[in-house]
Design goal:
two-stranded antiparallel sheet, 160 residues, two-stranded antiparallel ribbon, elongated
């Protein structure tokens, strides 16, 4: 009677292996992808704020109140615009709101906002590292369930 019991055990192990593989592919890897995309989005925001900071500093150095620039109307269609008084600018503060600020106010806001966003990216990086560790742990469990031996370091690769 031992062979049917052994076959049931193998079937249970195979089912568990499939469940773990699905968990890695359907949950952990998707979570990792979402976190990395969110982090990339925050990096893009930081880049835009730093670009605005450089523009404001250039305006301050030039000392001119008039400004000629290209404005994107959408779909990469640009028109030339002239600003009579560039001493006050509108800054996106979040949730679709813009606030009129002087150059100094805008620079202070940009410093605070970029430091806040940088802290958020650091947290997202830690979250992605935890998810990667969970993926490695589940893959290690799968390897043990399947009875595979350790792979040499040269054959291992980074997960995502």
């Amino acid at each position: 009677m031992s062979p049917p019991c052994n076959a049931d055990a193998n079937a249970n192990v195979d089912q568990k292996i499939l469940q773990y593989e699905n968990f890695v592919n359907e949950v952990l890897k998707k979570d990792l992808q979402k976190v990395l995309e969110q982090r990339d989005s925050v990096y893009e925001k930081i880049s835009q704020y730093l670009q605005l900071k450089n523009t404001i500093q250039s305006l301050q150095e030039s000392g001119s109140r008039k400004l000629k620039t290209d404005v994107d109307l959408g779909c990469n269609f640009y028109v030339q615009a002239e600003v009579e008084d560039s001493s006050r600018i509108y800054v996106a503060v979040g949730f679709g709101f813009f606030v009129e600020m002087t150059h100094d106010e805008a620079l202070r806001f940009i410093e605070k906002k970029t430091s806040q966003l940088t802290a958020f990216t650091e947290q997202l990086t830690k979250d992605s590292a935890k998810i990667k560790a969970n993926i490695r742990m589940v893959l290690e469990g799968l390897r043990e369930l399947q009875g595979l031996t350790d792979q040499p370091e040269s054959r291992r690769r980074e997960v995502l």
